[in-house]
């Protein structure tokens, strides 16, 4: 596909940019295949704005002088006056919640620009996306892609519990489970043949795999999708065997289902899904915790963003609006379910299997949060990024579908849902409640919140490992996580107050303890910017004091 | 079990009684234990596995009630209910035998409400000694001098040295140079309780001033007073402001209603003046609002509709209005315009507005010592009625004069520290400590309604100042990230979206909601303070000139140097 097809007007002079925190400036607007570029050559500052078109969520046009004079003027005189007074304003609303305006002279140019932005920002062909063109001077495509490897995790586990677990390459060509990576961790007692059968019994082939091994007691967190028991309560011996192998006979285990039991029953009756019944899985206790996902989560995001962006002075209903958005309720549910999971593993000392229906959303959300709560190794900057890569990227969260649109879009929702954003918000709540325990900074969470929706890097492209392999993401794009760990970035993304603790960090999940993530939702308000600066200043101070103390 | 081992008694603190009883803990259920009462505190320690202790200064007790009667059945239905002023209440169950409850009830009443029993407050019994005398933190003349006063437009008057002009004002006042003592007396006759407009703060470079007072006594008939009009004109002339802005903190309806009781507001007869109402509600509204907040946070926290319940208390909305009012004041003054503030009597909302505006305008008040001066000056010396608002040692818990106006001010300061984490030398702990001792009666600082009463009761010589205690370990109250920026005006955002409930204060009694990891964070901050000081020391060694402007030296000793970098004004003093 040619980008130029969509670009009728590539350059417009004398465009006025009105952006938060900056005086409005006049300059040149340029639309390329992937970017909106604004450069202001008039002033001394020579400000440049480079925005990924992919970051644009919605665009609103208001064209002035359209009808104002035309009805009264003869066409000849109209021509005389054109392109004189006609102009238009585009309001651009980004997925990172920034909103800005462009005043564009000439109605036609304005509409052309709007058309280009609309078309180019909603392109769906992954191979045409910017990460395939982004070539930073300080990185090479030969650089290592990604941080984690199942092999590494396996060796760590092997050192602690020899002979309990093994690496399986049954999914080597992604045919058993398209959304799993080629190598997965499973109980040693279970052969690949068994896994093949289990995969057929689980939705989309997501058979139970080990995602976390708790060093203190050797218990594990497994995750999967729902079993396909269906209306006539089908059983799968191999599936039962696999779970039995996890708890090793004597022990017992928990299954945390992220649906209510009614929802799970309904899935069984109508959609061929189901749950692990008590009789078929003795030793396993099922716990249901209903978590919202999909559409209702997306709608919640839209409402909270709307409340935050309400510029009217009538803010007396702010707290009600915030409550009605239910966003903080979702945060609470996620953290408390993750807390339950961590409690099962750390306090009760039992292994846990987590799933909902597909096991690609809430399942990943709570397994990630539980690991943050329990495992100090996940709380460092590298540890956290590795965790995200393992659970979300390799774990098969469909980023492309979920993050196609954000809160401003007028497009009809399809598969969008801010599950990853909810994870970042929950991580921020932990960070806020435990200012010393996490090695990464709020800036990292903010950066990830932006990158998940629009990025120069390939990390969040596609919906699964198979899709990424098919179009060569690892060969043709750069890895975000590697870039974030570069020495020059590290300071910004580290928490200067960090002090590693071996203890679990149990979050308080009472509504009184949860805060709106102002750093994200009110990021583009004056106050948000001001606080960001203050926090930068504080980080610099600590670094400065530390450096001199070392000297 | 020896309880004494657990309590470090204060010098002057004496044990009165102890008793076995059951504490009905709202979070852990009934706990057997022993209570120990001194002339200062109630201390409880459970004897059960749950090693819980309570350490309650008797001063925080607002009400003691008997619960259940001799015929009460049911477990733990007979005992005492103790309501506190600091958001909590305590319930103890006793055995129904002998006169055990009557004894403890009487002892508690006597020591919690000493004034109602003609007994002295604990601060008069305390023998605490501290190195620094907190009573000398605030010296009015020094503070005026710091502001560049007197000068050719403002003079210092001692007209009130015997509290004859106004018994609720301090003795030393700053007034327009051209107003004579006779003028002041005539103005006093037209202002409620003689609280004439006097200077609170002046901006050095443009001489814009904040003056505070009470409402004019206009009354139903719409009385005028030429002297008052002329006096405000003199005020305006001190810096040539074209229009003097009078901020009336009340909602306009209330200001009108006040005419019925002889009060009112400045009308059109005041030429060159504009009147702006700030819509801040009165002490009764604030009291009820905090009561509602208490109802949703103690003992059980409203969970299911937390945000809308919080909204229905209107507490944050009141905070917003107070802050927004102070911002308008600060904005006028930093724009070079002089302002006059009042409400009805000028000792509640006016104190909030003037002190908050001064905190925004003058970075000196954002230091530890400066903040203490601000409280001493705008709240204590100008007669915020602490005794009536808090009811120290007084059993009349339903007194309509009680109101959390000062708590609300501290909350506003907390909101500012959250929005400007590097602008304040002190930390949240200082604010919580101030509020703790607002009630405790351990120190004399917040006792009595005004300076004249404090003088009469020899507070300075017979009690210890809270600031003596604070300075005995001031590093606990310091913010390691403090970066002094003299001359910078802070404009907090008074929008609901940017205000937060001060959870770690209002919900601090709930162990499940208490802020996480409090002590490691404090420990880390302490280390950072050490690191910072080390850094500053090394920096000084490295460079012969003083350290770079944006770093501070910790806790500047003595009165801080002039904080504003403006051209030096000639000050004839």
From TrEMBL, chain B:
<feature type="active site" description="Phosphocysteine intermediate">
    <location>
        <position position="343"/>
    </location>
</feature>
<feature type="binding site">
    <location>
        <begin position="343"/>
        <end position="349"/>
    </location>
    <ligand>
        <name>substrate</name>
    </ligand>
</feature>
<keyword id="KW-0472">Membrane</keyword>
<feature type="binding site">
    <location>
        <begin position="282"/>
        <end position="283"/>
    </location>
    <ligand>
        <name>substrate</name>
    </ligand>
</feature>
<dbReference type="GO" id="GO:0046716">
    <property type="term" value="P:muscle cell cellular homeostasis"/>
</dbReference>
<feature type="region of interest" description="Disordered">
    <location>
        <begin position="542"/>
        <end position="573"/>
    </location>
</feature>
<keyword id="KW-0443">Lipid metabolism</keyword>
<dbReference type="GO" id="GO:0052629">
    <property type="term" value="F:phosphatidylinositol-3,5-bisphosphate 3-phosphatase activity"/>
</dbReference>
<dbReference type="GO" id="GO:0004438">
    <property type="term" value="F:phosphatidylinositol-3-phosphate phosphatase activity"/>
</dbReference>
<keyword id="KW-0966">Cell projection</keyword>
<protein>
    <recommendedName>
        <fullName>Myotubularin</fullName>
        <ecNumber>3.1.3.95</ecNumber>
    </recommendedName>
</protein>
<dbReference type="GO" id="GO:0030017">
    <property type="term" value="C:sarcomere"/>
</dbReference>
<dbReference type="Pfam" id="PF02893">
    <property type="entry name" value="GRAM"/>
</dbReference>
<dbReference type="GO" id="GO:0048311">
    <property type="term" value="P:mitochondrion distribution"/>
</dbReference>
<dbReference type="InterPro" id="IPR003595">
    <property type="entry name" value="Tyr_Pase_cat"/>
</dbReference>
<dbReference type="InterPro" id="IPR011993">
    <property type="entry name" value="PH-like_dom_sf"/>
</dbReference>
<dbReference type="GO" id="GO:0005770">
    <property type="term" value="C:late endosome"/>
</dbReference>
<dbReference type="InterPro" id="IPR016130">
    <property type="entry name" value="Tyr_Pase_AS"/>
</dbReference>
<dbReference type="GO" id="GO:0004721">
    <property type="term" value="F:phosphoprotein phosphatase activity"/>
</dbReference>
<dbReference type="Pfam" id="PF06602">
    <property type="entry name" value="Myotub-related"/>
</dbReference>
<keyword id="KW-0378">Hydrolase</keyword>
<comment type="similarity">
    <text>Belongs to the protein-tyrosine phosphatase family. Non-receptor class myotubularin subfamily.</text>
</comment>
<dbReference type="GO" id="GO:0005886">
    <property type="term" value="C:plasma membrane"/>
</dbReference>
<dbReference type="GO" id="GO:0046856">
    <property type="term" value="P:phosphatidylinositol dephosphorylation"/>
</dbReference>
<dbReference type="InterPro" id="IPR029021">
    <property type="entry name" value="Prot-tyrosine_phosphatase-like"/>
</dbReference>
<dbReference type="InterPro" id="IPR004182">
    <property type="entry name" value="GRAM"/>
</dbReference>
<keyword id="KW-1003">Cell membrane</keyword>
<dbReference type="InterPro" id="IPR010569">
    <property type="entry name" value="Myotubularin-like_Pase_dom"/>
</dbReference>
<keyword id="KW-0904">Protein phosphatase</keyword>
<keyword id="KW-0967">Endosome</keyword>
<dbReference type="GO" id="GO:0030175">
    <property type="term" value="C:filopodium"/>
</dbReference>
<keyword id="KW-0963">Cytoplasm</keyword>
<dbReference type="GO" id="GO:0001726">
    <property type="term" value="C:ruffle"/>
</dbReference>
<feature type="domain" description="Myotubularin phosphatase">
    <location>
        <begin position="134"/>
        <end position="506"/>
    </location>
</feature>
<dbReference type="GO" id="GO:1902902">
    <property type="term" value="P:negative regulation of autophagosome assembly"/>
</dbReference>
<dbReference type="InterPro" id="IPR030564">
    <property type="entry name" value="Myotubularin"/>
</dbReference>
